[in-house]
Amino acid sequence: MPGFKGLAVPGPTNMPFEVRQAMDVALEDHRAPDFPSFTKPLLEDLKKVFRTENGHVIVFPGSGTGGWEAAIANTLSPGDKVLASVFGQFSYLWVDLCKRFGLEVDAIDVEWGRGVPVDEYEARLAADKEHKIKAVLVCHNETATGVTSDVAAVRRVLDGLGHPALLFVDGVSSIASLEFRMEEWGVDVAVSGSQKGFMMPTGLAIVGVSQKALAAKTTATMPTCFFDFGDMLKTNADGYFPYTPAATLLRGLRASVDMLLDEGLDNVAKRHRRLADGVRAAVDAWGLSNCAQGPEWHSDTVTAIVVPEGFDANDVIKTAYHRYDLSLGAGLSKVAGKVFRIGHLGWLNEIMVMQALGGVEMAMRDVGIPFEPGAGTGAAVKSFSATAEAAPGTVKTAA
Length: 399
Known about the structure:
Helix content is 40%, strand content 17%.
């Protein structure tokens, strides 16, 4: 089919031309004398994206899963206890990884569609008088269900109780898209990946690390090699890496960080909220349900949409892909066949969201889901128009 394919999954996301062009370079010598003049400013600017001054950002070849592994392997020892909650596929997978590394995991099962149970975290931490819990895991944005949790609230609990546990955050589908304040929120390890808010191909695990987490490494006994914080920071200090870095991806990351900082991180978060509001307006107008069970859980980077009883969400996904060249996110694990997901993060504007919503309407109509054609797209138009800032040469009129 002619024309561009529509990519409306929650990762990988659409890649800007600036990032593509930045990576279209000849391979380079990663040990060249002038390589540090490129890497040192990049690593410093990544700290601005994570919003940390005293911490470090480490870039590994890998994905978010590698970042999860780095978080626990560098700071904990076999048998250590961690507190976590499971409310979607990715929060479950991080817990599973912890168990494979021999950690004792207190994993609170939460209904999918809700997020981190802050009150239950507080109760478990308050009861931990001997401070056996060494780390607390928070999935900031559960991509499988479109649920965002309150990281700052978990930090307030830890501080209020005087509990010394480390705070680990999965920010794979939130950092560089949603508001994220590593230092202000007291996050000790923040994990992200290149393929979502950073608008790049998969291939980089981007990990923020606090001084407290680095201090924990001195007593941790997990074996580390590829994901070793110490090896990375020692060579990064001189602008190099302990092994061959993904230099081409680093060039793309430079362009990505420039775009994020030029737009301004507050503006990035506002744009994502506005686009998400348009998608949520469409879902309401279709008469369908958001998997996230209330506004307090709504994600601004992905919406998981529940199909009516008797329909299979996979039929919507397949029809959108094969008939209209639109990729939608599938439901995972417990919500497989029950939801389809629209990713609205990264390099994205109103027109691109409208393309996705139009494709969804055509696919839903084809599979027989009852709704009024144009209801969702119309609701999104109203939402975007009502919140549009007048650009030079345009006239904003009353609705």
